[in-house]
Amino acid sequence: MNTLSFQSRKPRPLRRMLAAMLFGATLLPFAVASADEQVQQSGPVSFVSGGVDDASLDRMKSMVPGFNLKMVFALNSGAFLSDVNVTIADARGSQVLQTKSEGPWLLAKLPAGTYQVVATEGGNPIRRTVTVGSAKASDLEFRWANE
Length: 147
Hints:
alpha+beta; Immunoglobulin-like; five-stranded mixed sheet; four-stranded antiparallel sheet; disordered N terminus
């Protein structure tokens, strides 16, 4: 066996491992992105939350036309919030959605009607009443005092 072919074979496992790591690293953002912004269902309500980075926010913006309620969570300073507890009840007081926002945006598709929305961050609830239809999305903004 000549030295050249021995040397070219010896580092192959290392090359394969490095190639696999580089390939895996390039796929990681796509795997994470596909796990974000998944539309979920709770009874008659479809909803999705996200917007934690620019790419996620762009995906959320592209999804707005499929929903009739858009909620945004932030501090008065303008800093966005995630992990906000959200409860939506219909005009009769029946809860139609209870979830925790995975980002500063939460989109919901509700049957047309009037709803009471309570968003709670750090034990501080904010209540809003909103009427939604089947046309353009209604916007709700929730802002809490800076920490």
